[in-house]
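Input chain follows. Return structure tokens only.
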Amino acid sequence: MKCKGCGAELQHEDEMLPGYIPKEVFEKRTLAGEEVLCQRCFRARHYGKLMPVRFEDFWSQLINVIKEVDVVVWILDITDFEGSYDPKISEMLSSVKKIFVINKIDLLPKAVTVQEIEGWVRRQINEEPLDLILTSATRRYGLRRLEEKILQFRRVLFVGVTNVGKSSLFKALTGKDVSITPFPGTTLGLIRAKVSNTVLLDSPGMTTGHRLIDLLSPESQKKLTPTDHLSRFTFKPNRDSVIFLGGVCRLDIEFDSELRPIFQIFASEAVKFHQTNKVKADTLWRRQYGKLLVPPFDPRELPMESLNFQEKRIELNVSEELAIAGLGWVSVRRGPFETCLKTIDGIYVRKREALINPTRKER
């Protein structure tokens, strides 16, 4: 039996795949003779909300939609750039006309200018989009410029990973009068709205598996996604220092200089930091996972014994940062130093040019 909304074959096993509906709901609606929609279509039609989909399952369906639109608007999160600018998505969209939207700029320190943010992003993406627009959905910054740009096209598709603010931007531009649209040749349900003579399509948020939050429940994802501000802590560690970011990331610090390194860690306020030494670190991690070391999620979601950890040795210096996708980043103020980073296997980790200039004076 197929979903009446998107045409996907109905199934009860995997919530992340098209056509999912809880078995008890399916039986209840079938017996009552009611219209049967998959969970994704039901929530989209009645609540204007799209559920996330896995990138691998999503792309083959989305490619049919892309052929029918004039431009793709790719929403990125400046507070989790590595997690939202996924290399696989970039490769898939390489031949598509697109507008980059960099959201949540209001969460960065006020001293960082929009010119600095735009310049930094352009150097990271290494491509020339039709436009690059900085926005804050919560403060409505940049929305007028975005609207003026997209209204130049007939059909526009919004894409992005989960929790980047894509749907918030879409609703801010379109209002609440939205409907679900199944495209010919695809089982993917989309949110459709019309502004002036332009049709806007919002696609489900993607999960790539490369961000920490992709491993968590929606409730934990919400807690881990910063909304009001980023927490920022400054560290001046000793040679044997170990710093935990929640219970899922460990930084062992090593350096030869007489001067201790100085760095800041930026993350959601839900992420708790704890500094100890190498002698105590292993025991502390094992005993305090989910307790003193708040993961930051319900530890029953990811029991420590079920996790595989990757280990990377990375040298960092002034004007460099170390980003952990879906968690936060380390920004170096004084270096050099070396860190042995341990985090969940598969989480994307990258050394990058500093977004937060270490020589900048705070306002």
